[in-house]
Design goal:
Order of helices and strands: HH
Shape: elongated
Helix content: 25-40%
Structural class: mainly alpha
Strand content: under 5%
Number of helices: 2
Length: 76
């Protein structure tokens, strides 16, 4: 049978985890280096030639300047 951990041990563990997370977040914010996706500032790829349900196939150029909602779903 494992010994039961005290409530103080769990509180201390939570505080230390929170402190480490805070220090990590503060370090990243202070350094100014955040993760930047390799796709940042690159044009979106054209839509593949697939079946369109509610319209004829569109090109990205036709959608430029418009609000576009993409819904991805699959059967599973």
């Amino acid at each position: 049978m494992r010994p039961r951990r005290s409530r103080h041990h769990n509180i201390l563990k939570t505080l230390i985890s929170g402190l480490i997370g805070f220090v990590l977040a503060a370090t990243l914010a202070a350094s100014g280096h955040a993760y930047v996706s390799p796709l940042h500032d690159r044009p979106a790829p054209e839509f593949p030639d697939t079946t369109w349900i509610n319209s004829s196939p569109l090109k990205l150029q036709e959608l430029r300047g418009k609000v576009v909602l993409l819904e991805f779903w699959t059967y599973g």
